[in-house]
């Protein structure tokens, strides 16, 4: 999944950020993006087909002893337009909250619905693989359970401390172009106001070419980090501005 996401962002420089967990991936286009004249059908079909193509193509690289057979992997997708930087930020926070199991203090989220994916899945499969339950019995035992109760099941029955699980499972995967980090300064709301005021100022052709070259030089990285707290966003202002930062110097 992460390999396909990196390949997609290489093919489509207009994608500024990706976030993946389980069998789902979210990709972000900046609101100034004019790719395909912003036609949602074209954007969705291009993203889905490109991601699927690289996923299938790379399968033998990761699973050489498990060749694909019909039915082959397929993905669907949809486009959602968020009206503000804060709305987008809240959505990305919610995606990571859904992966993990706690409500963040930095996001404007008040209600979480459904199962919190990874904690639920970890407990569900522990009950089956280690506890000997069938899927229906495991579902019944977990129905209506809280995060603390799932943690108790994992620790008391199977000596599994959920906090020791790998970060990729607890935080998901964040994919972005890696520029030099900046020191935290302006708040997210202040950055959003500046961007709104600068929207009508179109970059020159020369600046566009420079930005294009910087994007091409930037390394696309996959990290399993906290995107709920402000620090991730404040130290990577290019995610909001869509203007590439300084490419890190090679050691």
How is this structure best described in words?
GO terms for molecular function: GTP binding; magnesium ion binding; tRNA guanylyltransferase activity. It is an enzyme of class 2 (transferase). The protein has 2 domains: 167 residues, tRNA(His) guanylyltransferase (Thg1) (Alpha-Beta Plaits, 2-Layer Sandwich), CATH 3.30.70.3000; 49 residues. β1 and β2 form a beta hairpin. About 6% of the residues have low confidence. The chain is globular. The protein has a 4-stranded antiparallel sheet, with helices on both faces. It is built from 11 helices and 4 strands. It is α+β, with helices and mostly antiparallel strands. The two termini are 29 Å apart.
Question: What tags apply to this protein structure?
Answer:
tRNA(His) guanylyltransferase, Alpha-Beta Plaits, alpha+beta, metal-binding, 251 residues, four-stranded antiparallel sheet, 11 helices, 4 strands, magnesium ion binding
Concise overview:
The chain has 2 domains: 1-99 and 172-239, tRNA(His) guanylyltransferase (Thg1) (Alpha-Beta Plaits, 2-Layer Sandwich); 116-164. Residues 101-115 have low confidence and may be disordered. It has helices spanning 2-11, 40-62, 85-99, 117-129, 135-142, 147-158, 167-171, 188-198, 205-217, 230-234, 238-241, and strands spanning 15-21, 24-29, 173-178, 219-223.
């Amino acid at each position: 999944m992460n390999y396909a996401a990196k390949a997609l962002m290489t093919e489509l420089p207009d994608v500024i950020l990706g976030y993946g967990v389980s069998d789902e991936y979210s990709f972000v286009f900046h609101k100034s993006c004019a790719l395909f004249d912003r036609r949602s059908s074209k954007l969705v079909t291009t993203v889905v087909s490109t991601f699927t193509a690289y996923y299938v193509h790379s399968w033998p690289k990761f699973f050489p002893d498990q060749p694909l057979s019909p039915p082959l992997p397929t993905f669907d997708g949809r486009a959602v337009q968020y009206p503000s930087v804060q709305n987008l930020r809240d959505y990305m926070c919610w995606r990571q909250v859904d992966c993990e199991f706690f409500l963040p203090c930095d996001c404007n989220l008040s209600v979480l619905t459904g199962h919190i994916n990874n904690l639920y899945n970890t407990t569900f499969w522990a009950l089956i693989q280690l506890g000997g339950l069938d899927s229906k019995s495991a579902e019944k035992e977990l129905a209506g359970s809280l995060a603390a109760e799932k943690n108790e099941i994992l620790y008391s029955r199977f000596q599994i401390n959920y906090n020791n699980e790998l970060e990729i499972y607890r935080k998901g995967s964040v994919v972005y172009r890696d520029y030099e980090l900046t020191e935290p300064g302006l708040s997210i709301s202040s950055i959003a106001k500046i961007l709104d005021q600068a929207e009508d100022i179109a970059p020159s052709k020369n600046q566009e070419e420079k930005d294009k070259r910087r994007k091409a030089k930037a390394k696309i990285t996959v990290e399993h980090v906290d995107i709920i707290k402000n620090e991730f966003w404040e130290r990577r202002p290019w995610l909001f501005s869509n203007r590439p930062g300084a490419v890190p110097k090679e050691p």
